[in-house]
Design a protein that fits this description.
About 45% of the residues lie in helices and about 15% in strands. The chain is an alpha/beta fold and about 400 residues long. It has three domains: about 5-220, Rossmann fold, CATH 3.40.50; about 230-320, Tyrosyl-Transfer RNA Synthetase (Orthogonal Bundle); about 330-410, RNA-binding S4 domain (Structural Genomics Hypothetical 15.5 Kd Protein In mrcA-pckA Intergenic Region, Chain A, Roll), CATH 3.10.290.10. The strands form four sheets. It has a six-stranded mixed sheet, sandwiched between helices. A five-stranded mixed sheet has the order 9-15-14-11-12. It has a two-stranded antiparallel ribbon with strand order 7-8. The longest helix is centred in the last third of the chain and has 19 residues, at about 285-305.
Length: about 400
């Protein structure tokens, strides 16, 4: 039977490890605790955080105990990894509120009951540190020369690295040491940009405790087209349904590049790899079915079965004309009087936010990319009236993939 290490490797999670033989042995021979840190710079995580989250899901499914660590303390400093300039400082209140929101969000993916997983905030111990004692007891183990050689710092030397950011590696390493001491956590995981910080923690545990700990990093996920995962023309794809609706989330996945379907099924669903490989072999119209499975499974994990079904039905209706529930499509409510008086369609596109401006809406329609109830609009200033309503609503479309429902609001 494969260990969870083999599962993660087969599914494409692992880019580098501190000791492959050691990690494979320890996860196969005993229950361990592992951790990943999540930066509370916003009140929601986005799709870019899904690889770390799903790795913790797999660890828990293998009966290990994940620790999701919200960086309420380190978030006040800001991780310089992968950044060209210093992050905008957040207030203590902002970090605290974001940390609380992330705790709730992570509970959708992991079962924290009965110590099956732990949800911690490093502010609980970092805020209690005495600076002089920290420098004496922890700082003496760090070589400035080695730190400057780390990619996170070396890249920033050109644009400027301040002393506050320079401390970040020490604090993250101390987090690992604290979790090792207090929770028996022996494995830290994270994105490949965290390699230097993770190895620093492994080394600190070796020096201070004279014991072995391990590190693992995941690849930076980009699409087949070379784009960063989760970035769209409309912005980031968030895990919070108030920031990205379940329908919009579903649409992101169903529009996956054909070349990414098998890889994304392996990373972002829990389907057995036999099924993943089978779907990856599909071509043409059959590949559309594989994308629908990817979209449904990914949406189910983040938003639940009911929202996934609603988004699937709405998508089928929008794209295939099926008689299905439209509740999942982004919806705006407009007063009945607007339709009684008539409104130019380009104004309606802009007013509901389907286009960023009326000028953009006009260009879209003039170029043949605007639709009402599946009918291509012949003119940007066509009047939309009561006659266009179907059961008290109309469905607008911009281009091939962006839909919006407008519902009459009686007053």
């Amino acid at each position: 039977m494969n260990s969870v290490y083999d599962v993660l490797k087969e599914r494409g999670f692992i880019e580098g490890v501190s000791d492959e033989d050691g990690i494979r042995t320890v996860v196969a021979s005993q229950q361990i605790r592992c951790y990943i840190g999540f930066d509370p710079t916003a009140r929601s995580l986005h799709i870019g955080s899904l690889v770390p989250i799903m790795s913790l899901v797999h660890m828990q499914r293998a009966d290990h105990q994940p620790i999701a660590l919200v960086g309420g303390g380190t978030g006040l400093i800001g991780d310089p990894s992968g950044k060209k300039e210093m992050r905008k400082p957040l207030s203590t209140a902002e970090v605290r509120d974001n940390a609380q929101a992330l705790k709730k969000q992570l509970s959708r993916y992991l079962d924290f009951r009965d110590d099956k997983a732990f949800l911690l905030n490093n502010a609980d111990w970092l805020s209690q540190l005495n600076y002089i004692e920290f420098l004496r007891d922890i700082g003496r183990y760090f070589s400035v020369n080695r730190m400057l050689a780390a990619e996170a710092y070396r890249a920033r030397l050109k644009t400027g690295l301040n002393f506050v950011e320079f401390n970040y590696m020490l604090l993250q390493a101390y987090d690992f040491l604290h979790l090792f001491r207090e929770y028996g956590c022996c494995l830290q995981m994270g994105g490949s940009d965290q390699w230097g910080n993770i190895v620093a923690g492994v080394d600190l545990i070796r020096r201070v405790e004279e014991k072995v700990a391990y590190g693992m990093v995941f690849p930076l996920i980009t699409t087949a087209g070379g784009e960063k995962m989760g970035k769209t023309a409309q912005g980031a794809i968030w895990l919070d349904p108030e920031l990205t609706t379940p329908y919009e989330y579903y649409q992101y996945w169903i529009n996956t590049d054909d070349r990414d379907v098998e890889r994304f099924l392996a990373l972002f669903t829990l389907l057995p790899m036999e099924e993943v490989r089978k779907y990856g072999q599909l071509t043409g119209a059959d590949l559309r079915a594989a994308k629908e499975i990817l979209a449904f499974e990914a949406t189910k994990i983040t938003h639940g079965v009911r929202e996934a079904k609603s988004a699937q039905e709405a998508s089928r209706r929008a794209f295939g004309g099926e008689k299905a529930d439209l509740q999942g499509i982004p919806t705006s409510y407009v007063a009945r009087q607007v339709f009684q008086n008539g409104i130019a369609v380009f104004e309606l596109f802009a007013d509901i936010g389907l286009c960023a401006s009326r000028a953009e809406a006009r260009r879209l329609i003039e170029q043949g990319g605007g639709y009402v109830n599946g009918r291509r609009l012949p003119a940007f200033d066509e009047q939309i009236t009561d006659d266009d309503l179907q059961e008290g609503a109309i469905v607008l479309r911009a281009g091939k993939k962006r839909y919006h429902r407008v519902v009459v609001q009686e007053r």
